[in-house]
Amino acid sequence: MLFAGKLFKSIKTELVYHNKYQTRKEAELSIFEYIEKFCNNKEDINN
User: How many distinct structural domains can be found in the chain?
Assistant: First the structure.
């Protein structure tokens, strides 16, 4: 649960509040890419 909370807080502060998306699809793609990077970084730290 802590991981999910930190992830959603990061998405809001680093993406949603700083970007103006033209379409929902553009926002979804940006968030998806951010989640992939966020999770890959966590895996690298844990290994």
Answer: 1
Q: Is residue 28 part of a domain?
A: yes
> For residue 29, what are the domain limits?
14-46
- Taking only the tens place, the pLDDT of each residue in 1-47 is 567 788 788 888 888 888 899 999 999 999 899 888 878 875 555 55
If you search the block for the tokens 């379409």, which residue do you land on?
23
Q: Does residue 4 belong to any structural domain of this protein?
A: no
Closest among 15, 13, 10 to 31, alpha carbons compared? 15
Distance CA 5, CA 31 (A): 15
pLDDT at 1 (0 to 100): 58
Q: Is residue 39 part of a domain?
A: yes
